[in-house]
Design a protein that fits this description.
- The protein has 494 residues and is α+β, with helices and mostly antiparallel strands.
- The protein has two domains: 27-73 and 333-490, Cathepsin D, subunit A, domain 1 (Beta Barrel), CATH 2.40.70.10; 90-323, Acid Proteases (Cathepsin D, subunit A, domain 1).
- Helices cover 15% and strands 30% of the residues.
- It contains seven helices and 30 strands.
- The strands form seven sheets. A six-stranded mixed beta barrel has the order 3-4-10-5-9-8. A four-stranded mixed sheet has the order 14-15-18-28. Strands 17-16-23-24 form a four-stranded antiparallel sheet.
- A hairpin with a 3-residue loop joins strand 23 and strand 24 (439-442).
- The radius of gyration is 22 Å and the shape is globular.
Amino acid sequence: MPETYVAAGYSIPVEMIMQANKDIYAKKDARHLILKSRKIGIDPKAASASFSPTAHAKGNGHGYRVVAATKFEAKAICFALRVIPASNRTWLPLYHRHGPCSPPPSGQRAPYSTASILRRDQVRADAIQRRLSRKGPSGVSTALGTALGLGTLEYVIAVGLGTPSVRQTVLIDTGSDLSWVQCRPCSQPPCHRQKDAVFDPSKSSTYSPFRCGSPACARLAADNTTNGCSGSNTNRCGYVVKYGDGSNTTGTYSSDTLMLTPSDLVVNFRFGCSHDITGFADTDLTDGLLGLGGDAQSLVSQAGKRAFSYCLPPTASHTGFFTLGVPRVSASRFAVTPLYRAAQSATFYLVKLQAITVAGRRLDVPPSVFSAGAIMDSGTIITRLPPAAYRELRAAFRAEMINMYPPAPPAGILDTCFNLTSVRHLRVPRVALVFDRGVAVELHPTGIIQDGCLAFASNHARRSPGIIGNVQQRTLEVLYDVAGGAVGFRRGAC
């Protein structure tokens, strides 16, 4: 991964010097941040208020938060979103796919075990690193069209497809571009059981398959050499998505009307109409996938709004939300950091870490350790850090926890665990991630501890980019302003 980046939308000024444990910053840097905030439609006062890492990291002056242990547990009942997103954007409820808030399944089965989920998470993290290095496990170049694993995708939204509109419950994924749903004809197997009725293109008056030789098919073939019409006898454009965990989906590249809300339609939305799926477990039950990556096939590019956000709930028994479009200034309280793009793949959204604080104290990690950047990913569960940064975080977190809670055995990739049996109120050291421009974002307690363990892991290679996983994004509204070249964070949004 190269150490130099081109920021989307504007040039990057000289790195400012910041101290995470002092509230002293140069006024010219604050003014620079406010100007960038105005550029993407974010409240300058809010951006300025979010400028101090210690304002987030220390809060009321204490390095801990005391949280009821029940706050980490998913319940059997659904806790609906308490505050409706106040904006001029399209918004939809977002659910954990295995939680009680999720749209009713057709025979829900038990979800994956924690051990299985963590194994799948490592598969996805490894697939991301291979795509960015363009190397497969044996050193052979890997096609960028190869997608990431689906086993770790946890969040779904319900959209409508076709005319008349048919509800489809789809996974959201910032690591994918091409969207797809299961379509008839599709038997079980080769298709898996799903929450809603399988989409029948013959019953939609607006459905249209792309033909061989069409510009859309040519663009798809250019993105991935396994797509297009090579060897096809039907004159219909075919697509293939091969995932890093061995699963895959194949079918017809098509277009139809996508309904996000009754007043928000994406006409001629391009997607894969899947007739054959392999490698998916019976616990998936979702109808398909909505790609939110940065390339041309994604919803973000097709809708033309070039900005979206989501808020992932604290547990599976709460709801979050997904929005499309830039927020109103009056409704925004975002801390803003530049958005970077990887030269190897247009799909990924990158940010740059500068530091990490634990209990209000900055870790002794040189900024150069974070030079490879970090990918914002809705599909990776556990955040991956450079080895040197993870070692410092682990040591600092252990030092804060060890006198309060006895250690417990590791759980897969999570090697810093504690015995929290019978604990009713948990003292959680505050952890903040400090991004480029000194933007510090304090994590929610459920974004720090997962199943009694520190919810971070180490990269294999020191020069590989980090990954900001979805556990650390809980309760934050994460705004991807692709056109404005920024990522925003708003705390306590869901």
